[in-house]
Amino acid sequence: MKTHKSPLIAHLTELEKKAAHQEITLKDVVTIFGTDGHFVLILFCILPFLQPIPLMGLSTPFGLLISLVAFFYYLQKPPYLPKRWQNKTINHTTLLKIAEGAEKFFKKLERFIKPRLEFLFSEPFKSINIIFIILNAILLALPLPIPFSNAIPAWVILLQAIGHLERDGVLVLISYIQAVLSLIFFTTLAYGLKTGIEFIDNSMPTVAAI
Fold this sequence. Notes:
Blueprint: H1 7-19, E1 24-25, H2 26-32, H3 37-46, H4 56-74, H5 83-86, E2 89-90, H6 92-109, H7 125-141, H8 151-166, H9 169-209
Antiparallel strand pairs: 1-2
């Protein structure tokens, strides 16, 4: 059975070739990936947050950046990068390690990921997908010192990013399920916080009376 040739792997191979002969900036990386640049940038931004321990110092700027990149994709404009980041050179060795590692990882997934259910990338689902990414990027940006508060929205964004890069609607459907779990998690968190504050407020008169 012929396996689907991943466009992401093709881009990573091109990136490795260019990095072997010249210095690469973040702007170059986005240019190399062309129309896929938005989701490649989102993919690289989301990777540190897939583990359960929240990265409070990083989640806010990266969450806001991801939401901006997703919004620019919806507007069909080039991916947003702050000017001071555009010409930032990526260490040659580090870039090759990242590209080679990512290529090996996606080659293992290549047999399972393929273009399907592509109607999920057209309207109205296109708008729904971007809303899910932006909302979960905002949740990621919240500076919460609570386990999984980064990871749960990060997996929604990861599934959306890979789904768009590979045109795999099954991954997008899975991201919808993960988005529901994300909504339940943060709703429960907000309710618990509200209940805790109300309990403290109600306890204050009793404590004062003692």
